[in-house]
Amino acid sequence: MPENTKITPPHGSSSPFDKTAQHTAKREAILSESARLFNSKGARATTLADVAATLGLTKTSLYYYVRTKEDLIFQCYASTLDHMMSKLDQIAEAHDSAGDRVSAYVAAHFEAIRRAKQGQGYHVAALLEIASLKGEKREQIEALYIQMFLKLRAFIKDGISSGEFRSVKPTTTTRAILGALDWAFYWLEPVPNDEIPQLASAATSILLEGIAAPNKTYSSTTELETQQTIGSGFDREAQNRLKQEAFFKAGTRYFNRKGFSGTSLDEIAEFLNVSKGAFYYHIKSKDELLAHCYEYSLDKQELAYQQIQATKDSGLQKIVHACHELFMLQNSEHGPLIRYNTITALDEERRKPILRRTRNANRILREFLEQGIEDGSIRPINTLVAENLITGAVNAAMELSAWRPVADVPQTAKEYFDALINGLKN
Known about the structure:
Blueprint: H1 19-41, H2 48-55, H3 59-63, H4 69-94, H5 98-117, H6 135-162, H7 170-182, H8 184-187, H9 196-212, H10 236-262, H11 265-271, H12 276-282, H13 286-309, H14 315-330, H15 348-375, H16 383-396, H17 409-424
Helix pairs in contact: 1-2, 1-4, 4-5, 4-6, 5-6, 5-9, 6-7, 7-16, 7-17, 9-17, 10-11, 10-13, 13-14, 13-15, 14-15, 14-17, 15-16
């Protein structure tokens, strides 16, 4: 071999002496483990010491990569969004058909969760605490999220242009799909890993059928009783209840918009134009207020479901009513309903009963789905998957107004849930 011939390592190989590769690998491990802890314990309950301990690092070593928990959340979310955009780019490169691209995206979403649970892949963080980030960090993450959103929306728009998909509302439908899938990090956790691919196929079937199927009309005809609280000016108990509900509504607005960390009780008191003393007479702490906000939203949700259960409608019609009623509540004086992004901010003692109650409420949706399959209004689908896709979409509907105007609430509700409902319809 001539003396001036340069020897290069094989493509893709890494040298144990490559400090850049080592640094990148360690940073990826830190961010993956942080995502796992954030998803299970919540960002509030996770400390830098927790992350260091699970990776066998000293806090000093961890500080070389991240200085504060806010910086860790920021880096973790940025890495997650980078992974998602890279996957979308790979899918666009590998598939020409819009349907194949959407199918590949759903499969990749479920597969990422399966591999991470099995200890084989990168943990993808559920983006629950974006609202807790401040200033430039929040702006950067929101900008990355918009880029990711636009890549997925392009799949939908291309499918409409080619005639492969019907004329759904691209922005609204993309929000519904992302919301439906975002809930998977939670409900797939207890599912055996070998069952996840089958559940991914079931989810793909519902979503693709919903956007690729010819228009199937459905309507929401049952009028439910208006949810309201009436109290006499001379009834002190009723007046106190009205005051508490005002606190819960205002608290929900702030928690939904600013997250747990960014919400201030003093700011809520000022918004309600009440003295701090009067506010703290009813609400002892931010943790207590957040728990009450979940309970208040569940009260509204359960009442709506009970009214729907009492109707003689088909299973599909009950699903339509449930989706539309919760959307109407969110956009009425009786709302908003809580966005589950803050659930991990609650300590375990408060979180467990709320999640148990949430699961019980969501099971009513599965009853409606099972009734629909039996009465023929819903095609044979996996009811576990359908229940959780609907739950995720309902939860994400709380922030639809940030993406598009919601002037005509009934029409917007129909457009938002259009893909899911058509994906169920027989």
